[in-house]
Amino acid sequence: MLRERLAFFGALCAILVSINLVTADPNECELPPGLREEIAQYQPVVDSIFQHIVSGEYAGKTWQSLLEFTDRFGPRLTGSKQLEDAIDFAVQEMIAEGLDNVHTEEAIVSHWQRGREWAELVEPFQKNLPMLGLGKSVGTAPEGIRAEVIVVESFEEFENFTADQVEGKIVVFVPAWAGYGATVQYRSESASVAANKGAAAVLVRSMAPFSIGTPHTGTLSYDPEVRRIPAAAITVEDAMLLLRKYRRGDKMIIHLKMDAMNLDPTISRNTIGELEGHTFKNTSVVVVSGHMDSWDVGTGAMDDAGGVFISWKAVTFLKAMGLRPRRTIRAIYWTAEETGLEGADEYEKQHSEDEKDEFNVFFESDSGTFKPTGLDFSGNSNAHCIFAEIAKLMPCLNDFTYTEGTVGSDIGNWERRGFPGVSLRNKNENYFWYHHSEGDTMELEDPDDLDRSTALWAATAYVIADLSIDIPKDVTDYKPK
């Protein structure tokens, strides 16, 4: 099941970053009487929200808070003290900011540790191979693995090798970049594919279209019926070098050392703070969210502290402006997203009994917080029509899309069962240059872009939460996984 989840998750990430979704035609919409006029009346409120956040007293504050957070806690790997300290900090700060019902909810999560690791080409010449072990990979023996190399571009090419040819070797997969959704299967599945023929370890070209010698990590998925072998990502440049040399017939030997360990599952927490509704406190809640955890490289500013902070500050700034909607806006900072949506899965299970009454719409930002261009909306056709009217309120933004599929990773659990969803559209065409790498730092974040993203997030959530009607939904029952 995890293997299928991770494959879907990878494809979804690519959709969020690169695909244009179906556009709704507002002219074909039949809204309830008076609703179009009601939505139009929010224009002064929306304009005020943008003014306060983009050019008023809150300008620059999202970026400054994000800077201080990432500098203070650095990367926040699931199971680490740094993640849990960051969660404690968020709770204390939200209480100090006067948010309502600030608390955490526990989730049992994976606990993987990287340890020391290195790879070196030792024949036909010596060369360091910058690498990152893949999340949940097993380690090598203390002396490492020193083995001859097989290099292939695809699973189909690998099928041509017999088990005798593969036995004891390190297999290097160098798939051509065809977008994240199509290529990420090699990160997820290569270890088990190679181990099934007796490979000693696997190296995979990093999941990136562009590189300056930086490896990119991410979670793998072991087939439970196949022996687990060490797996790591190497740079695009080194992967291509190895492929060229193998194609020429060069015999190559690599020495790989990984101290990675999978420890017993541990307890982490989803983090919650609210702007409580004046009429509906615990029903028809509008959720705004991002994930608190990151990989253990870079500082996780782009993936996904930026998503956390536009959600957090959207609620904080609305409260400071004295804007309290009919329904509660609940900010959730998911834990353990990178290890397979573990925090969201647990939250869904914990809230499944009354979820149809409890939730209305789910927002999630997890594809960058670069210059915002609009929003992706998911839901049924009636929801699309209302979303299309709300989109008209947003100043200087016209990139809005509508789908009956999913637009988020953590919130995908709810979207697939019929809850409406919202995701940030932004100029993230270079997202995978930095994704899951040492390059994911504050240097990617721009104060003005974060202000506009926060304003768009806050204004849209406020209007949805304050409307006289809920966003329509067709929800199927929760089924335990």
TrEMBL record:
Family, as annotated: Belongs to the peptidase M28 family.
Secretion signal, residue range per the UniProt entry: 1-24
Compartments (UniProt record): Endoplasmic reticulum; Golgi apparatus; Lysosome; Secreted
Organism name: Anopheles coluzzii (African malaria mosquito)
Protein name per its UniProtKB record: Carboxypeptidase Q
Gene Ontology terms: biological process: peptide catabolic process; proteolysis
Alphabetical UniProt keywords: Carboxypeptidase, Endoplasmic reticulum, Glycoprotein, Golgi apparatus, Hydrolase, Lysosome, Metal-binding, Metalloprotease, Protease, Secreted, Signal, Zinc, Zymogen
Subunit (UniProt): Homodimer. The monomeric form is inactive while the homodimer is active.
Gene Ontology MF terms in the entry: carboxypeptidase activity; metal ion binding; metallodipeptidase activity
Gene3D superfamilies: 3.50.30.30, Zn peptidases
Residue intervals of the Peptidase M28 domain: 270-460
Domain PA as annotated: residue spans: 161-240
InterPro entries: CPQ (IPR039866), PA_domain (IPR003137), Peptidase_M28 (IPR007484)
GO cellular component: endoplasmic reticulum; extracellular space; Golgi apparatus; lysosome
CDD domains recorded: M28_Pgcp_like
